[in-house]
Amino acid sequence: MAKKSKIETARFVPVTSLVPEQWRGWFYEGMCNSEITWGASNRTLISVDFFLREADDHCSEEAHPAAWREWVKKVKRLPSDVYIDMES
Asked: Taking all residues of the chain, what is their mean pLDDT, rounded to a whole number?
């Protein structure tokens, strides 16, 4: 019987591909106050739901409300098995 591989594969998108360039200063500053920890890793993968919950708690007040709603809709369109990489 063949031995089953212990290697897992995960799909992810870099956070930099999701956050508009003009938001990056205040967005990342706000996310530093969230429950997400990163910094010394090569990858920090989090679910879309967790990412949006933390972003809403720590960043939403900085954005124009209509722009924020559109951005949330865009992020929610990611497939459920895709993670967000906070390291890139």
From this structure: 90
